[in-house]
């Protein structure tokens, strides 16, 4: 009857986790798009300035350019980690199956939020300045273009995990 058991029993639901994932992934996807655009712009300008006189400076600018290629993998890593956390924490939630309609209602709300997030990302990715850069972010583009379907799948899996074990 320690604090750990009380924390598990006090957990009221997993919908807020799904909504948090939606918002975090949207903000992170847009941030990655901006960084993938800004880093090459900055390094190109620095290459043509007086600061680019030493080998260390040229090496640092090249490493900054190489980092842009890793941003897409970073998004995939964060996405996978957040989904695993949602499904993992679902095992600690014990709820009676009578609450399934309430869970479905809140999942519908999560679906609406994910559709809005998808539209926001599409608007950013179709921006004339960012479109070519956003197109190079393949994992980010693939995940956020199918965001509502992915969130429905995650929500359904979480619902099965939460409610399949039955109540207390």
Please, could you describe this protein's structure?
- This protein is 80% helix and 0% strand.
- By secondary structure, the chain is mainly α.
- The protein has one domain.
- Helix 3 (55-90) runs parallel beside helix 6 (138-145), helix 3 (55-90) crosses helix 7 (147-164) and helix 4 (100-125) packs antiparallel against helix 7.
Q: What is the overall pLDDT average?
A: 84
**Biggest sheet details:** none
Report the oligomer.
single chain
- Rg (CA only): 21 Å
Number of helices: 7
Shape descriptor = elongated
Strand content: under 5%
SSE run: HHHHHHH
N-to-C CA distance = 16 Å
Percent range of helical residues = over 70%
Structural class by secondary-structure content: mainly alpha
- Unreliable residue stretches: none
Summarize the structure.
This protein has 168 residues and is mostly helical. Helix content is 80%, strand content 0%. The protein starts with a helix and ends with a helix.
């Amino acid at each position: 009857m320690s604090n750990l058991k009380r924390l598990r029993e006090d957990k009221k639901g997993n919908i807020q986790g799904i909504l948090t994932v939606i918002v975090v992934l949207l903000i992170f996807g847009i941030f990655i798009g901006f960084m993938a655009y800004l880093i090459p712009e900055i390094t190109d300008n620095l290459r043509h300035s007086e600061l680019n006189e030493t080998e260390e400076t040229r090496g640092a600018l090249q490493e900054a350019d190489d980092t842009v290629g890793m941003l897409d993998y970073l998004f995939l890593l964060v996405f996978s980690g957040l989904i695993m956390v949602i499904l993992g924490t679902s095992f600690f939630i014990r709820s009676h199956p009578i609450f399934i309609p309430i869970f479905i209602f809140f999942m519908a709300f999560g679906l609406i939020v994910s559709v809005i997030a998808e539209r926001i990302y599409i608007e950013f990715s179709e921006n004339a300045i960012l479109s070519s850069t956003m197109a190079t972010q393949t994992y980010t583009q693939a995940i956020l273009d199918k965001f509502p379907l992915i969130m429905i799948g995650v929500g359904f899996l979480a619902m099965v995990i939460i409610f399949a074990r039955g109540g207390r």
